[in-house]
Amino acid sequence: MRSSPPEVDRVAASRAAVAARRARATVKSAIAAGSRSPLDVLRAAFESPEGVEGRLRVTEFLTSIPAIGQTKTARIMQELEISPSKRLGGLGRLQRRRLREFVADWVASHGGTGDRLVVLAGPTAVGKGTVAEYIRRHHPDVRLSVSATTRQPRPGEVEGESYFFVDDAEFDRLIEAGELLEWATVHNASRYGTPRKAVEEAIAAGNSVLLEIDIQGARSVRRAAPEATLVFLLPPSWDELVRRLVGRGTESPAEQQRRLETAKVELAAVDEFDHQVVNHDVAEAAQEVVDLMRSRKGRR
Ligand SMILES: Nc1nc2c(ncn2[C@@H]2O[C@H](COP(=O)(O)OP(=O)(O)O)[C@@H](O)[C@H]2O)c(=O)[nH]1
Ligand SMILES: Nc1ncnc2c1ncn2[C@@H]1O[C@H](COP(=O)(O)OP(=O)(O)O)[C@@H](O)[C@H]1O
After folding, report:
1. Which residues form the pocket of ligand 1, taking CB atoms under 6 Å from any ligand atom?
2. Architecture of domain 117-294
3. Backbone region of residue 176 per phi and psi (left: phi > 0; alpha: psi in -120 to 50; beta: other values)
4. Which residues bind ATP (predicted)?
């Protein structure tokens, strides 16, 4: 005999589903923030397949691990021969073993001492902004530094998200007070600088921070923080760089010409950098940068 009308059952079931989703989100954030080891989550999932951890999809679990994005997850799933719909609790014995071995290797080679401060620089229009934006959207564990600038906001740009827009007097004050980790005048136009405090606080809290700045700024960071990792974003070819600059259509032909002259000089700086990433495809370049943020073996 029913003890409650069907609507009550439905409400209770949907409440339970929301609670279960929340619980899974909590586990994922804990993995992403590094406060819970992925191996510990696997152990819990295999012990009680119907528990929160056991109900996590393998894809959700993998993408929660810092430096594993969607592209890499798809590749791992294929290698481990696990279908994308599988939950951790629903894996067979062989799949469990393969996944555990994979995660143990990953933790051993990526855990703990990842490179915390990473600079992404490169010539004009190579795609720095595009790759940084992709990382912001797909890798929420990576903190992107928000620069201060004296340039005017463009339509759609948000104060404190795109930049901190300040006037010349305030920028002078920031420099004098030592509040900038580095700063530079970019494209002979406006001044841009990295607020020091936000970077230091994020690193102290155990987060990785990415600075998308120009090449002069990258050199200043190297002086101020020698432990930082410098990544140079390269275009697939010179012609493609020209196409991207022209295609973006945000500069006049004269300004484009000037920037291309600067780009030639900047490309010569590539050897000063720890790593080079070619921006063929935005998602792949972003994944490479994120991987470098964690790899201990990556440094030259
Ligand atoms: N040194 C330095 N360069 C920055 C900083 N923030 C942005 N930049 C660089 O300033 C340049 C101009 O950026 P932006 O005004 O967004 O214009 P866009 O590159 O033409 O879209 C880019 O090369 C950025 O990498 C910063 O804090 N410090
Ligand atoms: N991998 C890519 N393939 C094709 N076009 C790209 C790629 N990355 C960026 N772009 C395009 O190139 C132009 C310049 O990119 P942008 O991010 O503004 O460069 P930067 O910040 O280095 O000056 C933009 O129009 C952008 O959409």
Report:
1. 128-129, 147, 151, 182, 184, 186, 192-194, 212-214, 216-217
2. 3-Layer(aba) Sandwich (3.40)
3. alpha
4. 122-129
